[in-house]
Amino acid sequence: MRKILRFAVPAVAAAVSIVLTATSAQAAVWSSSDKFGSWSNGGYTLNNDVWGGGAGPQTIWANSYSNWGVNSNQPNTGGVKSYPHSGRTVGRKLSSLGSVTSSFNVSVPGQGAYETAYDIWADNNADEIMLWMNKTGAVGPIGSLQTTVSVGGHTWDVYRGSNGSNAVFSFLRHGNTNAGSVDIKAVLNWIKSKGWFGDVTLGDVQFGFEITSTGSALNFTSNSFSVSSS
């Protein structure tokens, strides 16, 4: 569960930090320690997205929409603290899309509580589809287990629920992976085939790190990421 208003940027978000952490990419072209620091590049928008209660400091840096990362220091308490991400808006009906695919490659720590996940929004944020590519520590999805399915190039446990604002469909991959690709349209078509939603309009396709706790400052890096649609 996260804030829906991902790309809302307060006035202070325009302030860009020029000091990176020692372990960040020293040649990064942009960085910010603002909670909702945001940067647009190549048709994508990056956001620090520190939205949870009791959150600690976090700095996002980027060389491009594809190569970016965060240094995050979150307390060992429950509840999601942040979802730093890169995202692209598709803005088309599912039936009009020939394909929607994405690929990613990340470097993540072996400690803390977090997942690397797609957060996909449809029908003006009425529906949220999460694709968990890896998870570490005490984290879990919203809702109840519905079934296990192989679709979009992966095998998932599928959960269905609500966060009180929108429906949430969470796909938890069998086995962690830090690199790969996914057929997003196939996943959306499968949800539609279950009657859980109709011919929805695909909005933002976001990808990043949903962080609950780190215990100390940890680094999360997107080495590459892209979304393609036709």
Q: Name the helix and strand elements from N-terminus to C-terminus, one letter apiece.
A: EEEEEEEEEEEEEHEE
CATH architecture assignment: Sandwich
Name the poorly predicted regions: 3-23
Structural class: mainly beta
Strand order, biggest sheet? 2-3-6-14-8-9-12-11-10
Can you walk me through this structure?
The chain is mainly beta. The protein has one domain: Glycoside hydrolase family 11/12, catalytic domain (Jelly Rolls). 4% of the residues lie in helices and 49% in strands. It is built from one helix and 15 strands, in the order βββββββββββββαββ. The strands form two sheets. It has a nine-stranded mixed sheet, with helices on one face. The longest helix is centred in the C-terminal third of the chain and has 10 residues, at 184-193. The protein starts with 29 loop residues before the first strand and ends with a strand.
